[in-house]
Amino acid sequence: MQATGQTPVGEIVAADFRTAAVFHEFGIDFCCSGATTLGQACRERDLDEDAVLSAIERSCGQPAAGPAFDTWDPATLIGFIVGRHHEYVKRALPSITAHAQKIAAVHGRRHPELHEVARLAGEVAAEMTSHMAKEERILFPYISELAAAAHEGTPAPAAPFGPVDNPIRMMEAEHKAAGDAMARIRELTQGYAVPDEGCTTYRVCLQELDAFERDLHAHVHLENNLLFPKARALAVDCQGVRARDVLATTRRQRLGPGDLP
Questions:
Q1: How far apart are CA 109 and CA 111, in angstroms?
Q2: Residues 6+ apart with CB under 8 A from 47
């Protein structure tokens, strides 16, 4: 796609994931704020829009790296999200929280911001654990059922949460909360910079936090900008099937036996 200042940043990354590296470089949020246009994102961060567009063009000219996520069906996306990102989060969080608590205890007197870093890391760990469980047990299975119904041309399956947009909005809000917490950690640590007196654990912890935030951006992008729009479109398709079924049933009820074609 040809990106312009009016293109939402989430759409740019959805069309070519190589551009994610550009947005990381310029500090532009393409996941939780994916609906923000490139021009608006540049104005908010006082960036040169032409420079960002040039960097995007250069990144798209490099050899393709990674799969074309935008072409994947919901079931394939879900499998990748759970297998790659959910499993990474489950492995990474215990080490991150333990290291954050340790460096706060050891270096907290000289760097009091580490106490807030440890608190925020603990909150992210608790929230993401609960968040992923809700996705894996409730939302993702329903989206898979929705995709199957749309493929078979049948109405959407019944759901205890009402329209699929209800849990999606909740997941999007939780994504933003986690993203905001990680952005605050990045701010507190001045971009995950290790002070001269920082020990090995200090360095490892900030590297872990940096890697976690990068993974979170990719993780949330796949859900907010790709999977969830596909789920909303499937719900509309199934709603159309249900409307046609209701109309056909009503017509049959109004016709007498002798009126049937």
A1: 6
A2: 26, 28, 41
3-class state of residue 204 by DSSP: helix
> pLDDT at position 251, please?
52
| Residue from 213, 178, 215, 202 nearest 113 by CA | 202
Which ranges constitute the DSSP H helices of 111-261?
113-134, 140-152, 165-188, 200-221, 228-254
The kind and range of the H/E element at 55 are: helix 49-60
Q: Angle of helix 87-107 relative to helix 113-134, nearest 10 degrees?
A: 160
235 contacts 165 by C-beta, under 8 angstroms: yes
Tell me the average pLDDT across 211-221. Answer: 95
Closest CA to 96 of 117, 65, 69: 117
Residue 153, helix vs strand vs coil: coil
Phi/psi at 37 (nearest 5 deg)? -70, 155
Start-to-end C-alpha separation, the chain:
50
pLDDT for 53-63, tens place per residue?
999 988 877 66
Residues 56, 61, 65, 69, CA torsion sign: positive
Q: Quote the pTM value.
A: 0.80
Place of tokens 């099937």: 241
